[in-house]
Amino acid sequence: MNALERPAAVRGRGAFGRPLAVRSRGLSLRIRPRPLAVTLLLALLAAGSGALALTRDGLVPPAEVLGALFGAGSEQAAFVVLELRLPRVALGLVVGAALGAAGALFQQLSRNPLGSPDIVGFNSGAATGALLVLLHGNPVYVAAGAAGGGLATAAIVQLLARRGSFRGNRLILAGIAVGSLLTSANSYLLTRAALDHAQSAQLWLIGSLGSAERHQVPPALLALGALLLLALPVVRRVDLLEMGDEAAGGLGAPAARTRLLVLLIAVGLSAVAVSAAGPIVFVALCAPQLARRLSRGTGTGLLPAAAMGALLLSASDLVAISLPTAGPLPVGVVTGGLGGVYLAWLLGRGRRR
User: Fold this and answer.
1) Which residues touch 252 (CB under 8 Å, ≥6 apart)?
2) Orientation of helix 86-110 relative to helix 255-277, angle to 10°
3) How far apart, in whole angstroms, are the C-alpha atoms of residue 51 and residue 216?
4) pLDDT beyond 70 at 88
5) What is the CA radius of gyration of the chain?
6) Residue 23's pLDDT band (cuts 50, 70, 90)
7) How far is CA 29 from CA 12, 20, 74, 77, in A?
8) What is the DSSP pairing of strand 9-11 with strand 20-24?
9) Percent of the chain whose pLDDT exceeds 90
10) Do residues 206 and 278 lie in contact, with contact meaning Cβ atoms separated by under 8 Å?
11) Distance (Å, rounded) from C-alpha 84 to C-alpha 183?
């Protein structure tokens, strides 16, 4: 019997939390039940948060929301749901997933829980590139500007942290320094822009989903899917780097090439998020850590972190549009507050230990 005719075989114990080895037609895949269950649960909660956002004020009843989604509702319900609310909800899920995945890759690459793109300056670099396009060019090329700014920032930080092999405290300090300089550069760009451009750019720099439109969702979703597909085969090689560069190279994971590939994917994910909604803070920092605590897994935890990021940003945006303020808050204000609470909890937990 050849490999094409061989039936699927499952090895391993079925206990919850123990990996299962699945083989089918010459392919082998290890599945860890607990991280998979956590990923599915977080994805369902994120979808539920988005569904609440579609029906948040009772203007459109849930039955009409379902009808609008399936093309059977009234014109008014279809306009409110499909044109005003659904793009914001969908873009929030995509941006949150991109931030969570980027944070997981950066933290595993740097081997530091503070190694997220908003801490080490990559989001600031992407924002600088996007601002240059927004204020002086065609808004169609914002994504390209964000990607270019993020890559340039990554190159600078890597040069500054090269003795640390792109990991550890040296990377964090270099990233914080570069990020501070880029934040100053962004402020300077705002002072030189026209008043109306500066106001819209300032709101974007805080991080907002208020200007989401339908045409933004498909390219962001396609870019997220493509980058996650590229990242999944690389994740195992990143995890092997914990054994040391020589040992990882002997197991088929060349250290320099693996780090460069992961860095490019993580910067791409950050660029997707920044170009769509601005440099939203703390989601990339918190999502991988919270997902890892729930899944009790080791390694990168890419998919749980992406699902947690989608849930955090979707829930934060629901809070932002539900608070009784003079107008809807930018979602970056809420994520910043949640991030501060999370860091305070970590400090308190560390002190008790």
Assistant:
1) 237
2) 150
3) 20
4) yes
5) 21
6) low
7) 12, 8, 47, 45
8) antiparallel
9) 20
10) yes
11) 32
What are the distances in angstroms from CA 288 to CA 208, 241, 260, 305? Answer: 22, 18, 21, 5
Beta bridge partners of 27: 24
pLDDT digits (tens, 9 = 90+) for 122-137: 888 888 888 888 777 6
227-284: pLDDT as tens digits: 999 988 887 777 666 655 555 555 556 666 777 788 889 888 988 998 888 889 899 9
What are the backbone dihedrals phi and psi of residue 295, each rounded to the nearest 5 degrees, phi first? Answer: -85, -15
Cα torsion 288, 289, 295, 300: sign: positive
Give the whole-angstrom CA distance, residue 61 versus residue 161. Answer: 54
The values of phi and psi at residue 27, to 5°, are -100, 150
pLDDT at 193: 78
DSSP state letters, 58-84: SSS-HHHHHHHHTT-S-HHHHIIIIII
Whole-angstrom distance, CA of residue 21 vs CA of residue 29? 6
What CA–CA distances, in Å, run from 98 to 62, 137, 163, 169? 29, 25, 29, 24
Which residue has tokens 């920032």? Answer: 153
Q: Are strands 27-31 and 9-11 parallel, antiparallel or unpaired?
A: unpaired
Contact between 95 and 277 (Cβ < 8 Å)? yes
What confidence tens digit (pLDDT) does each residue in 160-183 have?
Answer: 876 545 555 777 888 888 888 988
How many residues belong to the chain? 353
How far is it, in rounded angstroms, from Cα 344 to Cα 326?
28
**H-run or E-run covering 168:** none
- Distance (Å, whole) CA 200 – CA 211: 10
Q: Are 223 and 270 in contact (CB under 8 A)?
A: no
